[in-house]
Amino acid sequence: MRIAIANQKGGVGKTTTAINLATALAATGASVLLIDSDPQGNASTGLGVSRSDRHSSIYDVLIGDATLAEATVQTAIPGLSLIPSTAALSGAEVELVGLDHRIHRLTNAMEHADISDWVLIDCPPSLGLLTLNALVAVDQLLIPLQSEFFALEGLSQLLSTVERVRSGPNPKLSILGVLLTMSDRRNRLSEAVAADVRAVMGAQVFKTSIPRNVRLSEAPSHGLPALVYDIRCPGSQAYLALAREVVERTTAQVKSSERSPS
Ligand code: ATP
Ligand code: MG
Questions:
Q1: Among 108, 144, 153, 259, which one has the highest count of C-beta atoms within 10 angstroms of its own C-beta?
Q2: 147 falls within a domain
Q3: Between the CA of residue 207 and those of 71, 89, 131, 202, 246, what are the distances in Å?
Q4: What is the pLDDT of residues 234-248, one digit of tens each?
């Protein structure tokens, strides 16, 4: 199953979700590949892959200089591998414009690859060519929304991008779910925003929401997923619950598509 984690709004919990969901899925015994498609490289740093260990990146794959396998490094987490981000990725948005099949580069690279059970793509905070390549290459989109005022701002733009991808290059793209992040039960605004999002997005919102939890923000500075840094903290427990929900949703979707082949 291939999942892009995207929202063009910055700082909503995309990378935290990518790292911890990937770790939780790997803990089930599945093989997981996390693609760090953000020039900021936060997913790579958060998984403890230092700059000196990043030889090639998703940039080299998109440009056609490396295969997925060549760009993949193992992480310290059993079952979890990573395609890191390198400094070169910051030029990719501009360079891709001049290439053929510019929104299909990732899809094409994945076509002949020996793909893991799960592929998660951590997207940058923009709707540029890196995010588009991800949306064209995956089956599912997970949208993190920060439980704050303006949470829904920009969502319509993201959803219309999804519609355009669906009506063109990737008809099978579906929305796996909307994830409320940094929620705070004691904060009335946070609760009101969550109620709003559930009213607008309905059953697409995951039952699990991720609480605001300082352990989640400390873990990356140790180069560890929160799930390894402190598995008992509320944030880690929420990501384990999210992983169960993701497995349930994707299994249900596979079953329903087997019943009604389109
Ligand atoms: P960007 O758009 O810059 O890539 P992002 O959407 O990937 O950002 P993160 O990097 O995951 O967002 O999170 C933004 C900041 O908030 C980080 O410092 C992260 O550690 C912190 N953070 C994320 N989720 C939580 C949470 N549930 N509780 C506390 N802090 C969090
Ligand atoms: Mg990020």
A1: 144
A2: yes
A3: 35, 35, 26, 10, 11
A4: 999 999 999 999 999
Ligand 1 probe mutation, 16, 130, 186, most atoms within 8 A of CB: 16
CA–CA dist 220, 122 (Å, integer):
15
- Ligand with an atom nearest the CA of residue 14: 1
125 within a domain of the structure (yes/no): yes
Residue 257: inside a domain: no
**Ligand nearest, relative to CA of residue 146:** 1
Mean pLDDT in residue range 207-216: 98
User: How many A from CA of 216 to the centre of ligand 1?
Assistant: 8
**Measured from the CA of 144, which atom of ligand 1 is nearest?**
6
**What is the count of structural domains for the chain?**
1
Res. 253: pLDDT tops 90: no
| CB distance 103 to ligand 1 below 6 Å | no
Whole-model pTM: value is 0.96
Containing structural domain, residue 139: 2-251
The sign one gets for the Cα dihedral 196, 197, 203, 208 is negative
CA distance 153 to 35: 26
Instruction: Report the CATH number at residue 70.
Output: 3.40.50.300
At 256, the pLDDT band (50, 70, 90 cuts) reads confident
Q: Which of 5, 246, 1, 31 is nearest to 130 (CA)?
A: 5
CA distances to 9, 33, 88, 173 from 40, rounded to whole Å, are 14, 18, 11, 26
217 lines ligand 1 (CB under 6 A): yes
Sequence-distant (6+) residues with CB within 8 A of 225 are: 19, 20, 22, 23, 46, 47, 77, 219
